[in-house]
């Protein structure tokens, strides 16, 4: 088991510098344009694919890095480059993780490569869980999957919302209800293969930030997928449902155990979002530091004023603290340590709130210029707002932390 370390090893530093080079030379210069266009930056994704930065191999390597620092390091550098473009690059990973977590080896081998395509024909994938009436409250999901035994097909009906890459993806991973009696334990995940009839894109959202990332509704009307598209397979699902029914009969204590098991899975993915937030916060802090050193008022650089310098001191301190929480949680997840105190949620909560605060302070330090689109901190502040919302809002993270610490069903 890898010891916890606060320093990247030489190999990791090399990878970090390589990603940083792409973020600085390709992503940053393209950021304002794609933010204005509000479209998926396909040429940038293609550039990333050409050098291997958009590929299954690369993310698998980082995902299985035994120190746990591969993914946070990658996320921080990409989101330092630009959050909207970075989400277009890593959004496919959300769907890929859905398959890695629940799929058989055969399903992983068949579908995950199709999610990325190749450098000549780049593809993206979408993970569709949220619905208009089921955001934080995942158990309220209504999209139904019904098994047609005669044809060995599943029939999916419902409307998904807020899906990153929804409708433009080659492969969609869709979470649906197979047993409404069992709450979130009655859900299962399905692959919807490319060009499946019945799946269409609904509304594409015009957003406040991360505008280079495509977010849309996904409508499923009598979508028929073969039996082998149920992730994990039918036997495993039947066993899981039988166990859940038994536990449900066992009363509140039984449900408590079921919920905690699901919670542990979500916990493990949250530090990655924390790392994205650290990247955006660091980018804004660096802009503010540079500006404060060069902008002169009253005959001296504005950083000469404690009122400005102390803000920068606080910004940097919070960013470093956020990174440490993210690295701790990532290391715990990869080494199989239990999040006894909801450390995954802590890292996401602190890092996302830090990004919002730091990007707002950066605008203040840049004064009028910070408020314009001539300088990137305005975009960074709009982008940072997403981190306290997706993958569990800050309020939901606080609920998870408070419930874990107290053992009480706090509402
Ligand atoms: C840009 C973007 C990309 C996204 N990408 C995806 C994706 O790829 N796939 C996907 O499935 N989903 C995606 N989402 C959905 C995202 O995960 C949800 O928006 C999020 O879970 C919150 O759900 P909601 O928007 O319905 O808010 P709601 O759940 O309606 O929450 C509204 C407010 O009420 C608060 N609240 C709710 N319940 C409680 C409670 N019990 N205690 C205290 N406060 C509470 C929330 O914290 C929030 O402040 C994306 C969202 C956005 C905006």
Automatic annotation (TrEMBL):
Pfam families: Acyl-CoA_dh_1, Acyl-CoA_dh_M, Acyl-CoA_dh_N
MF (Gene Ontology): acyl-CoA dehydrogenase activity; flavin adenine dinucleotide binding
Cofactor(s) the record lists: FAD
Location of the Acyl-CoA dehydrogenase/oxidase N-terminal domain: 9-115
Domain Acyl-CoA oxidase/dehydrogenase middle as annotated: residue spans: 126-223
Domain Acyl-CoA dehydrogenase/oxidase C-terminal: 261-405
Keyword Flavoprotein: yes
The UniProt record lists the keyword Flavoprotein: yes
Record-linked PANTHER family: ACYL-COA DEHYDROGENASE, ISOVALERYL-COA DEHYDROGENASE, MITOCHONDRIAL-RELATED
Similarity comment: family membership: Belongs to the acyl-CoA dehydrogenase family.
Protein's name in the database: Acyl-CoA dehydrogenase
Protein's organism: Streptomyces yunnanensis
Taxonomic lineage of the native organism: Bacteria, Bacillati, Actinomycetota, Actinomycetes, Kitasatosporales
């Amino acid at each position: 088991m890898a010891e916890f370390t606060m320093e990247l090893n030489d190999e990791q530093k090399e990878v970090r510098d390589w990603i940083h080079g792409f973020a600085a030379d390709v992503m940053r210069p393209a950021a304002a344009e794609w933010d204005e266009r509000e479209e998926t930056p396909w040429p940038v994704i293609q550039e990333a694919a050409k050098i291997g930065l958009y590929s299954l191999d690369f993310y698998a390597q980082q995902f299985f890095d035994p120190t746990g620092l591969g993914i946070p390091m990658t996320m921080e550098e990409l989101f330092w480059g630009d959050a909207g473009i970075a989400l277009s690059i890593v959004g496919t990973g959300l769907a890929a993780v859905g398959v890695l977590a629940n799929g058989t080896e055969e399903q992983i081998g068949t579908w995950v490569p199709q999610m990325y395509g190749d450098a000549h024909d780049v593809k993206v994938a979408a993970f569709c869980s949220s619905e208009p009436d089921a955001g934080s409250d995942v158990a309220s999901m209504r999209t139904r999957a019904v098994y047609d035994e005669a044809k060995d097909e599943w029939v999916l009906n419902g409307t998904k919302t807020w899906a990153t890459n929804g409708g433009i993806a080659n492969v969609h991973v869709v979470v649906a209800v197979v047993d409404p009696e069992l709450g979130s334990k009655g859900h299962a995940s399905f692959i919807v293969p490319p060009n499946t009839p019945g799946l269409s894109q609904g509304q594409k959202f015009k957003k406040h930030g991360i505008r280079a990332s495509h977010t849309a509704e996904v409508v499923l009307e009598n979508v028929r997928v073969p039996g082998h598209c149920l992730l994990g397979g039918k036997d495993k699902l039947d066993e899981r449902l039988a166990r859940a029914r038994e536990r449900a009969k066992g009363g509140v204590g039984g449900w408590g155990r079921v919920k905690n098991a699901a919670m542990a899975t979500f916990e493990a993915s949250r530090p990655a979002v924390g790392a994205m937030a650290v990247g955006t916060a660091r980018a804004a802090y660096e802009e503010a530091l540079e500006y404060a050193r060069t902008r002169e008022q009253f005959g001296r650089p504005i950083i000469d004023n404690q009122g400005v310098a102390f803000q920068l001191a606080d910004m940097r301190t919070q960013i470093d603290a956020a990174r440490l929480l993210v690295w701790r949680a990532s290391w715990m997840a990869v080494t199989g340590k239990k999040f006894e105190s909801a450390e995954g949620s802590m890292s996401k909560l602190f890092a996302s709130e830090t990004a919002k605060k730091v990007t707002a302070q950066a605008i203040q330090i840049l004064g009028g210029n910070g408020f314009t689109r001539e300088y990137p901190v305005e975009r960074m502040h709009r982008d940072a707002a997403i981190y306290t919302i997706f993958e569990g809002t800050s309020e939901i993270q606080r609920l998870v932390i408070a419930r874990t610490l107290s053992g009480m069903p706090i509402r």
